[in-house]
Amino acid sequence: MKTDRDLNYRLYLQKNDGFTRNPFEQELKFYRTIQSGDVEGIRELYAAARRNFAEGKGTLSSDPVRNIMYHFVTAVALIARFCVEDGLPHDVAYTLSDIYIQRADKMNDVNAILDLLGDMQIDFAERMKKLKKENVISLHVRRCIDYIYEHLHEELTLNVLSEHVGLNPSYLSKLFSKETGMSVKSFVIREKVRTAENLLKNSDFSCLDISLALGFSSQSAFISTFRKQVGMTPKKYRELHYMDVIEDIGGKKKI
């Protein structure tokens, strides 16, 4: 392969220099500590690692700032994925990752980036701790709910969801009902209707547009479902709630 010559040369230099990479188990422990929400544990691990951060790590750039920046990007990318694996919504994890990379990108000091690295790790650990404390729903059901939120515009069936989370449809149905107090179908309908309410209140989209956007088979099916859930038609709901406050002039609300 094209990299073999360079790889063998680098390995030879590392051996002559006595360079030894940190054991994989040590690195894995670090990420698992964040994933588990062990905030104090990650504080201690990072404080120890910070004292000689470069030890056991490869040189990714001859420029010290760029070198630490590359390590930062690698770390936050892996941390985000470990946290998603254990239930942190992927939009939250990846957007948080983007935020920290953008902050680090503005820095020109190694110690400042290292400080940010510690803050980033604690931030993710605290979010995982909160998730595990407040959300006792199983990982499979959390993934199922995430998928529902992200695919409200599609037809969401039990078979589709069970295939996504890798569970038998019958088992997922029982597990979902046990942990949420409602069936998969009822949950999907509830979330579609809630989204429709927001669109009716805050947008000019027609009922047809909304029904299509939320994956209903027809406009009449949307109207019928909405009426059953809310107690009135979408048209009536919009008449009552559309842009409740259009303008606020001189402290007076114009309805």
Number of domains: 2
For the CA atoms, what is the radius of gyration? Answer: 25 Å
Instruction: Name the helix and strand elements from N-terminus to C-terminus, one letter apiece.
Output: HHHHHHHHHHHHHEE
Measured between the Cα atoms of the first and last residue, the distance is: 71 Å
Strand order of the largest sheet: 1-2
Described by strand count, sense and barrel closure, the largest sheet is: 2 strands, antiparallel
Helix content: over 70%
Strand content: under 5%
Instruction: Pick out the low-confidence regions.
Output: 245-255
Structural class estimated from helices and strands: mainly alpha
Mean pLDDT equals: 84
Q: Work out the helix count.
A: 13
Strand tally is 2
- Shape assignment: elongated
In a few lines, what is going on in this structure?
By secondary structure, the protein is mainly α.
Describe the structure in your own words.
This protein has 255 residues and is mostly helical. The protein has two domains: 4-134, no CATH class; 139-241, Homeodomain-like (Arc Repressor Mutant, subunit A). Helix content is 70%, strand content 2%. It contains 13 helices and two strands; from the N terminus they run H-H-H-H-H-H-H-H-H-H-H-H-H-E-E. It has helices at 4-17, 24-35, 39-50, 64-85, 90-105, 110-134, 139-150, 158-165, 169-180, 184-202, 207-213, 219-230, 234-241; strands at 247-249, 252-254. Strands 1-2 form a two-stranded antiparallel ribbon. Strand 1 (247-249) and strand 2 form a beta hairpin. Helix 4 runs antiparallel to helix 5 (90-105), helix 4 runs parallel beside helix 6 (110-134) and helix 5 packs antiparallel against helix 6 (110-134). The chain is elongated, with a radius of gyration of 25 Å. 21% of the residues are buried. Mean pLDDT is 84; it is low at 245-255.
